[in-house]
Amino acid sequence: MRLFLKVINYFFFLIKKKIPNKLLILLGLNLIYKSRIFYEKYYVLEDAENKIFSQNGEDGIIDFIVQRLGLRKPTFVEIGVGDYSEANTRLIYEMYYSRGLIVDLVNNFKDKVSINVNLWRGNLNVVERKVTSQNINSLLKEYFPHPIDLFSIDIDGIDYWIIKELREKISKIFILEYNSIFGSEIEISVPNINNFSRKEYHYSNLCFGASIKAYVKLMDQKGYYLLGVNRLRNNAFFINKDYPKLNFFPRIKEIDEKEMTNLNFSESRDQNGHLSYLDKNEGLKQILDCDIVDLSNNSNKKFKLKSVLKI
Q1: Second label for 87, Cα 20 to 30 Å away, from 152, 178, 237, 259?
Q2: Has this prediction a pTM greater than 0.70?
Q3: Among the listed residues 103, 288, 292, the one whose alpha carbon sits nearest the alpha carbon of residue 193
């Protein structure tokens, strides 16, 4: 049965761009509902993956967590969603029509989002703003002064510094993107730069965000534990410590940070902006002269990446 679901999931992925949105939602929900019969059998978080509206398999993982926590109508905040055709919270909106906030710096953002979802059916606040470490809390206060069940951020840049400004235990579930190319042994982030651009910071597109070790430490301070990561090895899922793993996810095994950075994708670019498909080691060599912040010493000083790597 599980093999059957994987086949259906792949078929769904192939045809999703060719079918109407309503039919897409119906097929996606059917896939999710059928997958739930296996939730008691999963041993690693990535087993729950199903891709409907998320970029990878986050939809299935999110539904698994929501079901295990018993959230009836999960509220959400997601920062970095594009036009909302692919996003971590899109399925939640389509399933529950719950209260949510999505934020991105996209021209005519609300118009583009309205093409993909029926805004009248739920309570979705669509905000066209650039998010920084200086404005994150005022933005939340203005546009979403409500309890948050799920918080997701993916802006390919200074995510670490934005998260650092959030209050402890801001949500029950927290999803963030980490940079696998940085490896598992160092605590680093790109500097907190205004108007950070991933492609402008380094042509390779590989020097952005922060390492998984830096995030695990930061999120522990914020009141979360790491439940697991996706199979692609770029998104991490954290759970509020008020929901202990032993009680809510007793079967999910931990994986070490080295395995979490065993990335399964190659998105490097050459100096002309074309994909160069470098593996992890070759990609790392491209960015050795990039400025990063070594977070292990709490000094927040800039260093060259090569100065903190053990190579």
Answers
A1: 259
A2: yes
A3: 292
- Beta carbons of 208 and 201 less than 8 angstroms apart: yes
Domains, the chain = 2-279 (3.40.50.150)
Cα-Cα-Cα-Cα torsion 15, 76, 120, 155, nearest 10 degrees, comes to -60
Computed over its alpha carbons, how large is the radius of gyration of the chain?
A: 19
Nearest to 91 by CA among 120, 115, 61: 61
Per-residue H/E/C for the chain? CHHHHHHHHHHHHHHHHHCCHHHHHHHHHHHHHHHHHHHHHCCCHHHHCCCCCCCCCHHHHHHHHHHHHCCCCCCEEEECCCCCCCCCCHHHHHHHCCEEEEEECCCCHHHHHHHHCCHHHCEEEEEECCCCCCCHHHHHHHHCCCCEEEEEECCCCCHHHHHHHCCCCCEEEEEEECCHHHCCCCCEECCCCCCCCHHHHCCCCCCCCECHHHHHHHHHHCCEEEEEECCCCCEEEEEECCCCHHHHCCCCCCCCHHHHCCCCCCCCECCCCCECCCCHHHHHHHCCCCEEEEHHHCCCCEEEHHHHCCC
Sign, Cα dihedral of 255, 259, 260, 265: negative
**pLDDT-based confidence at residue 19 (cuts at 50, 70, 90):** low
